[in-house]
Amino acid sequence: MRFRVPQFIDIEDKIFGPFTFRQFIYLLGGGGLCFIAYRGLPLIFAILVMLPIAGLALALAFYKPNGKPFLYMLEAGFNYYVGDKLYVWKKNLKKKKIDIKNKEQTQMMYEPQKTLSENKLKDIAWNLDVLDMKGKKDQ
């Protein structure tokens, strides 16, 4: 028994002519706000208000940086603008108990985590490569 596997699941359906539902809503909202500005403000001020609104509506509807909707970029920018900008480095320390001569007394000692340096990592990788090559030659 064969089943059909759905394809193109990441592409939105075209509902209103060549536009998806989301694009249609962005364009309709931007057009509506431009119309309200046109009817409510003098022409010079209306044009100054309508240009950014129309640009934002078009960007939301059609612009996809890195294949993602423009709305994600706006959200990330807003979170960056509103969020904290103070970054504090915190060293990871392990707690280690050491028993002194008397079992009753224990002392907490902080020991930094051991990490591999870049040079040490390169040495280990080189050794693995050399040993792997020697193993192939012996066989």
Average predicted local confidence, pLDDT? 80
Which structural category do the helix and sheet elements fall into? Answer: alpha+beta
> Percent helix among the residues?
40-55%
Shape: flat
Strand order of the largest sheet: 1-2
- Which band does the percent of strand residues land in? 5-15%
Task: Point out poorly predicted stretches.
Answer: 103-108
The overall strand count is: 4
- How would a crystallographer describe the biggest sheet? 2 strands, antiparallel
Number of domains: 2
Written as H for each helix and E for each strand, in order along the chain, the element string is EEHHHEEH
Query: Can you count the helices?
Result: 4
Rg from C-alpha positions?
Answer: 31 Å
Amino- and carboxy-terminal Cα gap: 48 Å
Question: What are the defining features of this structure?
Answer:
139 residues, alpha+beta, two-stranded antiparallel ribbon, 4 strands, 53% helix, flat
